[in-house]
Design brief:
With 223 residues, this protein is an alpha/beta fold. The protein has a single domain, classed as P-loop containing nucleotide triphosphate hydrolases (Rossmann fold, 3-Layer(aba) Sandwich), CATH 3.40.50.300. Strands 1, 2, 3, 4, 5, 6 and 7 form a 7-stranded mixed β-sheet that branches. The model has no long low-confidence stretch (mean pLDDT 90). It binds guanosine-5'-triphosphate and magnesium ion. Guanosine-5'-triphosphate binds next to α2.
Length: 223
Amino acid sequence: MYHLLKGLHEHLTRKEEFSVIIIGLDGAGKSTFLEKIKTLYNDVPGLSPDKITPTVGQNTGTIVLPSTILQFWDLGGQRGIRNIWHKYYGDCHAVVYVIDAEDRERLSEGWEVFDGVLANPQILGVPLLLVANKQDSPTSLSVDEIRHDYEDWYQRKMESARRTRYGEPDSGHDTAMRRERIASLDVMGISAIEGTGVRAAVDWLFIRVQNSRRDIKVSTGSS
Ligand SMILES: Nc1nc2c(ncn2[C@@H]2O[C@H](COP(=O)(O)OP(=O)(O)OP(=O)(O)O)[C@@H](O)[C@H]2O)c(=O)[nH]1
Ligand SMILES: [Mg+2]
């Protein structure tokens, strides 16, 4: 009887654990986003924005939702640190790419890096959310403007690839898959500082990771 009840209890309290990586250029606001998530979902608040310094390596954070644990990995975005991102691709259940919607000067650089992320076969089937941060700033591009800016950038890239002697470096198959991904790309606007849109982004992740086909960890209430 004890074992039966214990099994039932474990079944009812079991939680699936999913890993979410947060990537994007340095200064995009990834750590501010993660700390705001901690503040909104945990008893212990995350760091206030004035305490956040550029990330060298990674920061982590965990939130508990109904039957689900989301483990976040906020990875440093500085040029020299970006080469560690790929080490996380194999095990993550979702990717959040944060773009600084206020920094027009670095949008192209942001798309260049984003394109490199999309090209990675390890995350081809993984839910990916593009987050346009800093919506509190009056000079920020809106979600629609960000989407158009990326599409324009992509068109320009494709045209210049067609003009080069060796043509488009990717195989046609690869390009078609990437185009499909771009067409169905979800873009959400947030202000990591003020917290607007942050819950909506977490809801998106919560729903999308449930359909993940990757291995998941399960923890029970008794462990
Ligand atoms: N106005 C505004 N500023 C923000 C927002 N989010 C972050 N910032 C500012 O942007 C700067 C960079 O924020 P971080 O969170 O450290 O950026 P990061 O993406 O983690 O940067 P790295 O760790 O270097 O990769 C800081 O000055 C933040 O206060 C936002 O929503 N609105
Ligand atoms: Mg950071």
